[in-house]
Amino acid sequence: MASVSLIQTAYDFIHRQIMLGEFMLGTLLSENELADSLNMSRTPVRSAITQLEHDGLVVSLKKRGVLVKEPSLKEAMDIMEILYAFQQLALEHFETHGEVPDLKKLKECLDLQLEATERDAYYLYVKYTLQFAYYFISILNNSAMLKMMELYIDKIVLYATINFKITPHEPHYSGNRVNQALYEATAAKDWAEVRRIVKASHDHSRERMVRLGRI
Fold it and tell me: Would strands 58-61 and 65-68 be described as parallel, antiparallel, or unpaired?
């Protein structure tokens, strides 16, 4: 049986290559080639692929290899609608109880996404943009929602990173403006403005996905 550390090493490598768009959607990966690249046997690689398959990032094709799974537009839009619903619930909580999310954590995420933008590190930019949303809804203290959010973050990062690579002509990094405005409105407890920003961002993202056929 492969050691846990080798499986984790293989998982981390393949996962990162997918997230960065180095292993593009629709690419067929070879267990043998992956094992050679990592200087290990196929056993830990196979176990890592099983985990990635469970995450919904790849699918094993008998006698053909491992396919980097291309998510459907519907799946992407469904995730976006779930995130929007969570934000609406958080807003209702803000308005009803007068509580605000952890502003320090929101500011940290905002600063990190701005720093990633300056470095043109799009993968990190998307990651921290979504972490901002995670801390925004954490005020609900709903472990099921947060767990679902954690599961979806990888997929949204993947969709966005691949889109960034194949649509260089499109404007990107719009999350900076949105999260900056959200942070300021949240700190001021201007819930009407927060609601307006959240809805406008949702509508813009939905229109873009429909127009481009992807996130």
Answer: antiparallel
